[in-house]
Amino acid sequence: MNLKNVTGKQIKAGQVTATIYEKGQLILDRPLTAETPSRVRIILLFQKPTDEAEEDPDDTLVAEVKASLRRFLPQAKAGTTR
């Protein structure tokens, strides 16, 4: 998805799954296809803990992801994220 931020520069949105390990390290499940090196803003969507042994990491509903992006993307474009 190509968008423009408040300065008029083009920004891209993408999605990839990852694992957060005990020391807080975020490890992506696959490499990003982006120009490197570059800085990025990351929006994290946490799954609710379950009793099941392990779930498919891509089981987030598309509608859920889109709703989250609709809520947080305007903040990212305005530069008001932390």
How would you describe this structure to a colleague?
- With 82 residues, the protein is an alpha+beta fold.
- Helix content is 21%, strand content 15%.
- The protein is built from one helix and four strands.
- Strands 1-2 form a two-stranded antiparallel sheet. It has a two-stranded antiparallel sheet with strand order 3-4.
List keywords for this structure.
single chain; 82 residues; alpha+beta; two-stranded antiparallel ribbon; 1 helix; 4 strands; globular
What is the structure about, briefly put?
It is built from 1 helix and 4 strands, in the order E-E-E-E-H. With 82 residues, it is α+β, with helices and mostly antiparallel strands. It has a two-stranded antiparallel ribbon.
What would the principal axes of the Cα set say about the shape?
globular
- Measured by DSSP, the beta-strand proportion falls in 5-15%
- According to DSSP, the number of beta strands is 4
Q: Using the CA coordinates, give the radius of gyration.
A: 15 Å
Largest sheet: 2 strands, antiparallel
Distance between the termini: 22 Å
The average pLDDT is 77
Which strand order do you get reading across the main beta sheet?
1-2
How are the secondary structure elements laid out?
Layout: E1 2-4, E2 10-12, E3 18-20, E4 26-28, H1 62-78
Antiparallel strand pairs: 1-2, 3-4
